[in-house]
Design a protein that fits this description.
- By secondary structure, the protein is an alpha+beta fold.
- It has one domain (about 15-25, about 85-335, about 345-360): HIT-like (HIT family, subunit A, 2-Layer Sandwich), CATH 3.30.428.10.
- It is about 35% helix and about 25% strand.
- It has 13 helices and 13 strands.
- Strands 4-5-7-6-11-12-10-9-8 form a nine-stranded antiparallel sheet, sandwiched between helices.
- Helix 2 (about 15-25) packs across helix 10 (about 230-240).
- The longest helix has 21 residues, at about 155-175.
- The chain starts with 6 loop residues before the first helix and ends with a helix.
- Bound molecules: zinc ion (ZN).
- Zinc ion binds near residues 102 and 147.
């Protein structure tokens, strides 16, 4: 299997046109972090990392997206670590938190959560609500019937997405300026979810999309002007040629080499709807992350093209990204000064490992 640490070598083997395309997007740098370990420390280093030489001379790979300025740093020691697939079910603290929170407001949403002025969307396995702590004029929730957010199947997910789309359409009908939808699923507390009970959040921007979407749309147009090609298709292709992308039923799925955080998976879909192919793919990815990688807390963010057929957004796809937020028992957060103020993401998992596993589901 390829590794992110070998990325410079992988790129060097690309055909000329492929290498040129890759270089439009990415700049990859390799550096070595050197240090000297005192004798007293050696037993500990050996026990913890297995190899003293490797700790003393550590390969570091920095990837920079020249168009978006997204940056990720991978180091050899972290990337080579085996992935521990610890299930949340074997974590007593998590199980206790899940059990203790049963009976909260989302367990009886019709009585304990507000409705939107246009009423509720009722799905088979979920119901919508209006968010009490809104961050936009229209900010709704899809509250799952099931309390435990990590316990979901494909049929339920399909219903959540269908209900979310119905909510977006109804919200837009209610306010025609609100045409720029974003769906987020913050799953459990490390992802910033304040309520322990499965739910999506739905927001719609008025008059403009959310910053990330606006930014991508700008980059996409500039890219088209320069190369007469689609930014997202080429971004995907830049990952496919280095062994990190696959196409399935109109979907392009890849593990980014400039992820926001660990185990990030991106899905790009041109059909502009949450149909069976889309939901199935999201289900496979999330299932694999939970089951194979022991992911307990994640953020899923989905940018949708506008609902008002805005010409400025013609051809903009659905972009779904999902990222691991780390172990629920861990007291240090995964985002620090580097991410916040150096715009540089420190990544602990090799995207090749994640891609290999996810691919086996498709
Ligand atoms: Zn509940």
């Amino acid at each position: 299997m390829l590794s992110i640490i070998e990325l410079p070598r992988t790129i060097s083997k690309l055909k000329y046109e492929e290498a040129e395309l890759f270089k439009r997007f990415f700049d990859v740098k390799r550096t070595t972090g050197r240090l000297v370990i005192p004798d007293e420390m050696k037993p500990w280093v050996k026990k913890t990392f297995g190899n003293i030489h490797r700790v003393e001379n550590k390969e570091i790979i920095k990837v920079f997206n020249k168009l978006t300025f997204e940056t990720a740093v991978f180091n050899e020691l972290r990337a080579k670590r085996p992935i521990e697939a610890k299930s949340y079910e074997s974590d007593n603290d998590v199980k206790e938190a899940l059990n203790k929170s049963v009976g909260g407001p989302f367990c009886t949403p019709l009585r304990m959560t507000p409705s939107d002025t246009f009423g509720r969307i009722k799905g088979k396995y979920c119901v919508s609500a209006s968010n009490v702590a809104k961050y936009d004029g229209l900010h709704g929730l899809i509250i799952f019937n099931k309390h435990n957010p990590l316990d979901f199947n494909e049929k339920e997910l399909r219903d959540y997405f269908k209900s979310a789309m119905n909510w977006f359409k109804k919200a837009y009908k209610n306010n025609k300026k609100a045409a720029y939808p974003f769906l987020l699923w913050n799953c459990l507390w490390r992802s910033a979810a304040s309520i322990i009970h499965g739910h999506f959040q739905l927001v719609i921007g008025e008059g403009a999309h959310y910053a990330e979407a606006e930014y991508y749309n700008k980059i996409r147009k500039e890219y088209y002007k320069k190369y007469a090609q689609d930014y997202f298709s080429d971004l995907y292709y830049a990952h496919e040629i280095i062994g990190l992308g696959m196409r399935r039923k109109g979907l392009r799925i890849f593990t980014s080499i400039v992820p926001r955080k660990d185990k990030e998976v991106t899905l790009i879909y041109d059909k502009f709807k949450f149909d069976n192919s889309f939901v199935k793919a999201v289900y496979k990815v999330t299932r694999s992350l939970v089951k194979d990688f022991g992911v307990m807390s994640f953020n899923l963010g989905i940018i949708l093209p506008p609902l008002n057929k805005d010409e400025e957004w013609k051809g903009f796809p659905i972009i779904a990204r999902i990222v691991d937020r780390g172990n629920l028992s861990n007291k240090t957060t995964d985002i620090g000064g580097m991410e916040l103020y150096a715009r540089t993401n420190i990544i602990g998992t090799d995207p090749y490992k994640v891609f290999e596993k996810i691919k086996s589901y498709f």
